[in-house]
Amino acid sequence: MGRSLDVFVHVPKTAGSTLLDLLSRQYGPPNVHRTRAMDLEASLEDFRGISQAERDKVRLLMGHGVLRLQDLFPPGTRMFTFLRDPFEQFISSFHYIRRATWNRYHEQVKDMRSELQFLEHRVITGNDNPQTRHLAGLGTDPLPDPDGELRVQVVDEAVSGRASTQLDAMVFVGLTEHFDESLLLLSDVLGWKGPLRYQVHNRTRSRPKVPADHQLRSAFEEVYAADLELYERARSRLQKQLADAGAGFAVRTASFRAWNRVAQEYGRLQHFLTR
């Protein structure tokens, strides 16, 4: 890759789908390579298989699993990602998979009656602590152990350590809960030009409110300890960046939100008039 490369690590259910469209506009579709979530392993191999000349044209690599291509990143690569409150991400994933008939786990999850059942399913299938897994470059498919038996990859101390190291190496880590502030800071860090605007994508509508289930919370905090620790690390980092941005940044954020709402309404009106 002759030119500088930026890499967006898309962690599922962290508003990444909303950001992907904006990124395509910022970099220009011909300059972007996106991995395919529905066919991830083949997608990663496809990128490895293209010529060096074609890889040199890529200015932005984005999608799920991109850290598993890190051996191809040139010096000076700028990596960034967004994380989300782990419990909110867990609940969002539950309701998303129940309605997403195309999801590989839909048939197993669609009739589950409780979040506790889903928590157990996440552990059994190797999908617990997904934010730690993604930053550590860990897949969700079972791997053969020394005896040749397939076993789920476990998030242990070593995996958590890799994820923390990757997080620290990112030029920016945003949070879904502070999406607009994160987007403005990211724009400053990467030196983007042109207007920032976005439409929210892939939001689970009419999501039932989760009851104050102490058993669920307790079990979740035990199972998702790695993600909770990673999120807190990212949250502390963002809080410092917001504090360093000064009092005027709040005014800038409010102005951006107002402008983006107008742009969204205009976009919806255009879509309605051209149907």
Number of strands: 7
How many alpha or pi helices? 12
Based on helices, strands and strand pairing, what is the structural class? Answer: alpha/beta
| Count of discrete domains | 1
Based on Cα principal axes, name the global outline: globular
Q: Quickly name the level 1 CATH class.
A: Alpha Beta
Largest sheet: 5 strands, parallel
Level-2 CATH architecture: 3-Layer(aba) Sandwich
Rg, rounded, reads 19 Å
Residue fraction in strands: 5-15%
CATH topology heading: Rossmann fold
Separation of termini? 41 Å
Helix content: 40-55%
Please name the fourth-level CATH homologous superfamily: P-loop containing nucleotide triphosphate hydrolases
Major sheet: order of its strands?
A: 2-3-1-4-7
The residue ranges in which pLDDT falls below 50 over 5 or more consecutive positions are none
Mean pLDDT across the residues is: 88
Order of helices and strands: EHEHHEEHHHHEEHEHHHH
